[in-house]
Design a protein that fits this description.
This protein is α/β, with parallel strands linked by helices. The chain has one domain (about 1-255): Purple Acid Phosphatase, chain A, domain 2 (4-Layer Sandwich). The protein contains seven helices and 16 strands. It is globular and about 50 Å long.
Length: about 270
């Protein structure tokens, strides 16, 4: 449940990647984009620009259909970075297949302590559903963990978003009991940020003392502020974090250089 990582450097450097949507077969495409190729482009950029990174957090939809082969390729790709990585389940993922590739002990740690910081990973998925929900056991775990480690500045990662981002079709899929989540973290000023995937775009908002972020996918991007499904022409990317000893953090998004990924921008339906 708890994973402890040594850190002798300040700031502590983390990277989030999300929504890779790898198909069962190598080179499979999502609305025209080869998702293996786009993931490799993102990871190559990460290696070039964040060579001193200490942890990778993958926030779900690693596979587009939950295929074991997709998780095997993801494992190999991120293992090439030679740094620890952890993942949370997305609505497209199949937990049993994820665990069969790496094992629950290695992939599904719920708490990470690195330096004086704490990372909490939550499962916001409902089997068979696209939208998000935090079950009672996840909320209880969150409350207990924040109380137990009340001296640690904390970032929380999950797949689904908690507040509307302004896209009507995506905002039907946010965590349906987000208010219960906020009731818990409102009691803990150690929570500094909450970060998600799922929405395939960059978003940020401040709520009380907590910063809320979403991040670009490593494959296709969704057009912001769109009522209906629509793809954006922005490039795939990742989000970086630098965690400071004083309990503050910095973050930003990096995207791969402009190139033609052969995306079907005329697509009007999801996947």
């Amino acid at each position: 449940m708890l994973k402890t990582l040594e850190s002798h450097n300040e700031p502590i450097k983390l990277v989030q990647i999300t929504d890779c949507h790898l198909e069962e077969q190598f080179g499979g495409d999502l609305l025209g984009m080869d998702t293996d190729f786009s993931l490799r482009q993102v990871l190559d950029l990460l290696k070039q620009e964040r060579s001193d990174n200490q942890l990778v957090l993958a926030t779900g939809d690693i596979s587009n259909r939950g295929a074991v082969a997709a998780y095997q390729r993801f494992k190999q790709a991120v293992s090439d970075l030679s740094i620890p990585y952890l993942w949370v389940k997305g609505n497209h993922d199949i937990l049993a297949n994820m665990e069969s590739v790496v094992g629950s002990d290695e992939t599904l740690h719920k708490i990470v302590h690195i330096g004086r910081w704490q990372i909490i990973l939550l499962n916001s998925t409902i089997d068979g559903e696209v939208g998000g929900h935090l079950p009672d056991n996840e909320l209880t775990f969150l409350a207990n963990t924040l109380s137990q480690y009340s001296d640690r500045p904390t970032l929380i990662f999950m797949h689904h978003h908690l507040v509307p981002i302004g896209s009507k079709w995506l905002d039907q899929q946010l965590v349906d009991n987000a208010q219960l989540f906020f009731q818990i973290i409102d009691q803990h000023d150690t929570v500094k940020g909450v970060i998600c995937g799922h929405v395939h775009q960059e978003f940020n908002q401040q709520r009380n003392h907590v910063a809320l972020y979403s991040s670009p996918s490593t494959c296709i991007q969704f057009k912001p502020k769109s009522d209906k499904f629509c793809l954006d022409k922005k490039m795939p990317g990742y989000r970086w974090f630098e965690l400071n000893l004083n309990g503050t953090f910095n973050t930003g998004v990096v995207r791969v250089p402009e190139q033609d990924f052969n995306v079907d921008f005329n697509a009007t339906k999801g996947y």
